[in-house]
Amino acid sequence: MDDKLMLMIPGPTPVPEQVLLAMAKHPIGHRSADFGKIMAEVTANLKWLHQTQNDVLILTASGTGVMEAGIINFLSPGDRVLVGSNGKFGERWAEVTDAYGLNTERITAEWGKPLDPEQFRLALEADVDKQIKAVVITHSETSTGVINDLETINRHVKAHGKALIIVDTVTSLGATNVPVDAWGLDVVASGSQKGYMIPPGLGFVAVGAKAWEAYKTAKLPRYYLDLGKYRKDAAKNTTPFTPPINLFFALQAALRMMQAEGLEAIFARHHRLLAATRAAVQAMAMPLLAADECASPAITAVMPSGVDAEQIRSVMKKRFDIVLAGGQDHLKGKIFRIGHLGFVSDRDVLTAIAALEATLQELGHEGFTSGAGVAAAAKVFASH
Ligand SMILES: *Cc1c(COP(=O)(O)O)cnc(C)c1O
């Protein structure tokens, strides 16, 4: 049915009506006083969201573009970097550091398992002559629904003293606590189509003082992604290149909504959606890919047995207009992923779970009592 599409994927995520309406205007000039006012407001609110006094810069790029900027502005060819790789995105950042000729050392974990902070501690402690220039981590690994223990890994980076911590928070920022200043995170990247509740197109990167020091001597080539340019122009409440003005209207509206809800309430909502989704999936006798201790508040990966994951997605879409994400790379066909990030409410999860039950019945999946998934989710909502 037209206009009934419901996105339960980890990006692009649903966009609230007031954000959509904010975009339905003529663009204004990005050197105008009116744009300057918007830029000032959204920059202040981005600092609030990141819990930081550091610069938070806005780029016209997807998440990958800002993460690439976050890597290349602070490093030089041949620099030794540790990159955590336990999924599609962690591996992507290792591909970026490889592409730029950095001396990349991958610290890996099986897809579906979290990175082991001990491996970072050992590598960092062994580096007595301080050759490791950066540690690159994906906080919430969207491909598997695993959240890595950034706080502990970062503690080991701080004990090393020299290395920067560069973090992909694309599906953790705005879903769970990422206190940039309290943890001393040097470079933090995120994108508009995830926790921000706005369409794709904007990327955000928070940069701290230690990273700006490294920027001065970093020798990788940079031009469009030169963060110094964005910082200089942000001081004048503008951007170095023409930004997608209408997405700034959207960002302004979305950040106001987030402020009205409050950080604690936003995090609590995501953790509640996660708990309800996991309880429901288990009640439907389908295994979860990630363990409880490392489950991402943005996304739940499910490994159905006896039913094809792609068939589930296909029925969900055709019959119920609900879009779920599939598995990536070697997990394709083996898992499906339920996004619960951004503008998602308890009702959305109840709807998706009810549709999933109907889908499983249609596909002849047995081994659970009809209604058990909805009941399990409802029980979580009743007690949170
Ligand atoms: C979505 C996502 C990105 C960015 O992907 P783009 O398609 O470039 O926006 C990066 N990291 C993670 C963990 C993501 O989920």
UniProtKB/TrEMBL annotation:
Domain Aminotransferase class V: 10-328
Residues where substrate binds: 337
Keywords: Aminotransferase, Pyridoxal phosphate, Transferase
Presence of keyword Transmembrane: no
Top-level lineage group: Bacteria
Modified residues (N6-(pyridoxal phosphate)lysine): 194
Cofactor: pyridoxal 5'-phosphate
GO molecular function: alanine-glyoxylate transaminase activity; L-serine-pyruvate transaminase activity
UniProt keyword Transferase present: yes
One BP term from GO: glycine biosynthetic process, by transamination of glyoxylate
Cross-referenced InterPro entries: Aminotrans_V_dom, Aminotrans_V_PyrdxlP_BS, PyrdxlP-dep_Trfase, PyrdxlP-dep_Trfase_major, PyrdxlP-dep_Trfase_small, SP_NH2Trfase/AEP_transaminase
UniProt family annotation: Belongs to the class-V pyridoxal-phosphate-dependent aminotransferase family.
Name this polypeptide is given: Alanine--glyoxylate aminotransferase family protein
Native species: Phormidesmis priestleyi ULC007
